[in-house]
Specification:
7-stranded mixed beta sheet, single chain, 479 residues, Immunoglobulin-like, mainly beta
Length: 479
């Protein structure tokens, strides 16, 4: 996706975002409750209603959220223990709640395309399911927006959903759940490419002859936050030298891939999309497409007062950042650009192994400039949604999906109700990296494997709202 050439820096931004320190004793699970307000339950109540979010004292936005806030409450469940989520919709339009990353039946997954009933205006509905797998998941609205930027994932309807497993030992002193967010979206044709940290990656799908037709309007934003605070509002995250701090990041953006860096520190990645990686590794910069999550810990070994935020100046100065303040350090928060690097899923994987897929499905992604009037449209294998009877699965079969991205955007591709294992990306084979959302690079190619073990309708789509709205989705069906 593309973002507008952003607004200028908004003056002094101190001291950082409001985040209450949540202390834990070492050797606890990285999914262990952080306090008495964060205990696994079997019944939850969600109210969908208008809310205001005070990003900063001089910046208050009006949107729709859950239980009077955005992000919504953290939902903590135990793997394998049935839960009920009661939803009351106090708005004038139908709504859905999608439980992203869970392996649950299609009638409670929260996608109208899959047959989940909507929550009617000023009505209510309950979802009952057994949560699995363990890990950092999330929940959000799954309605279409089209040309209404006050609908769907452009609103504040999102929150973390944590599924506790039986055992998942960690070793850290505190943890924080941080959702990256953009606000007050608008349509524009003044944009610049900000998709890839490394623009020099392989582009095997780049066409020999480029499409020169003028592109349609895209969605952009100049205002950002981590959770409900822009950089410079609220309290910093306070740490002490020698602590190990666990961060759970979520890109809850409807628009754009995001990057995060913390000067003088490295992120030790242990899980992607809530699933432990085979090879934990330390990186200077994180990359998250819309819908992706990263669990990582940071060794606090570089005292000072630092800004953790987007490497892109305009995005960080627009609010996407938070201050990390060491004890007994009283100074102006500092930002230092991170080293040049590129995001690579395969460093967390292992050499290819395991059973080969028995079935292969190729998916060709193309963009049609102004194919939907003033907006671009998207096709999969030359066709718009729904692809009736094109992608029919045989239960129990292992499939390989190969994505051919012939567009000038990177796309975070999400398959509902299934887990994807990356088989090849950036021209590199790998195995063991399990995700539910995979960013397919600009003009790039990626292959993922999955087992067709969740009967029912299964939605596949780009997690950028505007792309999904204008055709970038397909339905997979079981025979």
């Amino acid at each position: 996706m593309k973002i507008a050439a952003a607004a200028a820096a908004a003056g002094t931004r101190l001291p950082g975002q409001q985040m209450q320190m949540q202390m834990q004793t070492p050797m606890q699970s990285f999914l262990t409750p952080s306090g008495p307000q964060d205990i696994a339950k079997t019944e939850f109540n969600l109210q969908i209603a208008p809310v205001t979010v005070e990003l900063a004292p001089n910046r208050i936005v009006s949107t729709v959220g859950y239980n009077g806030t955005s992000p919504g409450p953290r939902l903590r469940m135990k793997e394998g223990v049935p839960v009920t989520v009661n939803v009351v919709n106090d708005t004038d339009v139908p709504e859905t709640v999608h439980f992203h990353g869970l392996l649950i039946p299609s009638d409670v997954d929260g996608s109208e395309e899959e047959g989940t009933p909507v929550v009617p205006p000023h009505g209510k509905r309950s979802y009952t399911f057994t949560p699995t797998p363990a890990g950092t998941r999330w929940y959000h609205t799954h309605t279409m927006s089209m040309d209404d930027l006050h609908r769907g994932s452009f609103t504040g309807q999102f929150g973390f959903l944590i599924v506790e497993g039986a055992n998942n030992p960690g070793n850290y002193d505190s943890e924080h759940y941080l959702a990256l967010r953009d606000w007050e979206p608008y349509f524009t044709n003044q944009s610049m490419d900000n998709d890839d940290l490394d623009a020099n990656g392989p582009q095997p799908e780049r066409p020999a002859t480029m499409d020169t037709r003028p592109a349609g309007m895209e969605v952009a934003s100049d205002i950002y936050s981590i959770n409900d605070k822009a950089l410079g509002a609220g309290e910093p995250i306070r740490v002490s030298q020698g602590q190990r701090v666990m961060f759970h990041f979520l890109n809850a953006s409807a628009i754009e891939i995001r990057h995060i860096a913390l000067p003088g520190h490295r992120f030790n990645v242990i899980a992607l999309d809530g699933n432990p990686v085979p090879v934990p590794a330390a990186v200077d910069v994180l990359m998250l497409g819309p819908g992706e999550r990263i669990d990582c810990w940071v060794e606090m070994n570089h005292p000072g007062v630092w800004i953790m935020g987007a490497p892109e100046d305009a995005v960080r100065e627009g609010g996407l950042g938070i201050v990390i303040e060491y004890a007994n350090q009283h100074r102006t928060p500092q930002w230092v650009a991170p080293p040049k690097s590129s995001w690579d899923y395969t460093i967390f994987g292992k050499p290819p192994s395991g059973p080969a897929p028995t079935e292969h499905i190729d998916m060709l992604f193309e963009k049609v400039p102004r194919g939907a009037g003033k907006f671009n449209s998207f096709t999969v294998n030359g066709k718009p949604y729904p692809h009736d009877d094109e992608f029919v699965l045989k239960q129990g079969t292992r499939y390989r999906l190969t994505f051919h991205n012939r567009t000038d955007d990177s796309h975070p591709m999400h398959l509902h109700r299934h887990q994807l294992e990356i088989a090849e990306i950036y021209g590199k084979p790998t195995s063991g990296v399990i995700k539910d959302t995979v960013v397919v690079p600009t003009y790039g190619r990626a292959s993922v494997d999955f087992i067709a073990d969740q009967p029912g309708l299964t939605l596949f789509h780009c997690h950028i709202q505007q792309h999904m709205d204008y055709g970038f989705k397909a339905m997979l069906r079981y025979a």
